[in-house]
Amino acid sequence: MARQTLSREEVLDAAAALVRAHGPDGLTMRGLAAALGTAVTSIYWHVGNRESLLDALAERTVADLGAIRPRGADPVERIGSVAHALRRALRERPHLVAMVHERGLTERMFLPAQRALVREAHAAGLRGERAAELVRAVTFQVVGYVLLERNRERAPVQSPAEEELWGAETDGADPLLARALAAPPESERLFASSVRALVEGLLAGPRTPSSGDITDIGDTGGGAVGRGPYSQ
């Protein structure tokens, strides 16, 4: 027997669950109706056709990512908390994020998190290009890390595996390094340390060129010092 009452949010919740489990291709109107215990005509009445449903799911995913709120007692912690929250949000809904990307809404999806980063950059005293650099660097770090995690999780079994590759290097100059690289990576810890190092470096401000910097090619004496990453 078909359900007598059904809300648009219930339809979107069930559709999102199907996409999470099976990807966008696994979302059919008949399958969704069966999951909800209702008629296909009821689904159409609430959300329109399948393309309209996918659009609604993409819009809701964008809205969900807007709920990120910074936490922490200092700028490094607060900016880092945005990075951690964005990573969690992306990892929790990979198929929905892919669907958002396919619909050309990627920039809109990241905008709320980037606005939060802008506010934190301003609060930390960064302005202009330095603030923009922090926003983009943190965003790229999160997205790149999530993509690498997903690729590692879905990769075929490697032969030789990391432990075999690095296990043969124990007689080198740094056996502790080889042993550490042979062990499975601690993903959470690695992400936390890399984000913290990135944010601390960006908040520290332009570095002063040192005598160890590379000089311009062709300089034959008294020439310019090689340009650092913050040089104008």
UniProtKB/TrEMBL annotation:
Domain HTH tetR-type: residue ranges: 5-65
Ranges annotated as DNA-binding: 28-47
InterPro entries: Homeodomain-like_sf (IPR009057), HTH-type_TetR-like_transc_reg (IPR050109), HTH_TetR (IPR001647), Repressor_TetR_C (IPR004111), Tet_transcr_reg_TetR (IPR003012), Tet_transcr_reg_TetR-rel_C_sf (IPR036271)
Disordered: region residues: 208-232
Entry keywords, A to Z: DNA-binding, Repressor, Transcription, Transcription regulation
Xref: SUPFAM superfamilies: Homeodomain-like (SSF46689), Tetracyclin repressor-like, C-terminal domain (SSF48498)
Superkingdom: Bacteria
Pfam family, one: TetR_C_1
Protein name as annotated: HTH tetR-type domain-containing protein
